[in-house]
Amino acid sequence: MTARRTDHARAQRGVRNPWPVTLAATNSPHTIDVRLGAFPDVLTDLATGSVTLIVADPPWNSAQAWADLGPFAARVLVPNGIVVAYIGNRHCFDALDRLREHLTPIRLAFLPVLHRDAWDPEVKCDEGGSFIAVFAKGRFDPPRPWRSVVPGAVDGRWHPYERPLENVKHYVSAFSEPGDLVVDPFLGGGTTAVACAELDRCFVGCEVDLNAFEAVTARIRALGLTREISTDH
Q: Could you tell me the pTM of the whole model?
């Protein structure tokens, strides 16, 4: 599968969260906090050892994104916290190596969903999906059983590389409890934010692309599950 979401968006790293939007679940005090900017810049306020689960879908061809993700996860995760990282087939070995520097590898899961350019002419492979790397900070002891292959339909309205909501909800449900803090440093189409709103998790996430960010906020508001409690334009 060809490289996705290239590094051009990281040129916006100097943006310091000019459009934070915080929403609260209608029947819960738990919040959905989405921010514009790159995570090394706009998620620095997350306390050490405060995050139960990180769901991440970094630019697959960005070595720097993977290099930044490992130490970030090691800092903010609670002991035995978990990372679920969607990785491209062409770049998976480098991504895994970078995460292994800071976290314990657990399993490779598989997402059987086709995106654009499934044919890789370099290795003459018609790829039927992509990998999901599961890592832990210390011992791996998830609250619930989980599956390594979770298919699901892609909505497709919110991002070119959107993930199936059923897939993301499975891992959020299996690897965290209601009220836990879940983080997505590469929001994309906002699927993790939606999963957390529906599953009663606290959520913080960010996105470097303004158009994608605006789509995420529109998607969350359209759920009817949240109310806006603060904005800062």
A: 0.86
One-letter amino acid at 80 equals N
Look at residue 73 and tell me if it is in a domain: yes
Q: For the sheet containing 31-36, what is the strand order? A: 104-111, 130-136, 77-87, 51-56, 181-184, 202-207, 31-36, 21-25, 226-231
CATH number of the domain at 178, please: 3.40.50.150
* pLDDT value of position 6: 34
Q: Quick one: which of 36, 45, 87 has its CA closest to 66?
A: 87
DSSP code at position 38? -
Q: How many domains does the chain have?
A: 1
Low-confidence ranges of the chain (pLDDT < 50): 1-18, 231-233
Is residue 24 helix, strand or coil?
Answer: strand
Whether residue 110 is contained in a domain is answered as yes
Residues β-bridged to residue 54:
83, 183
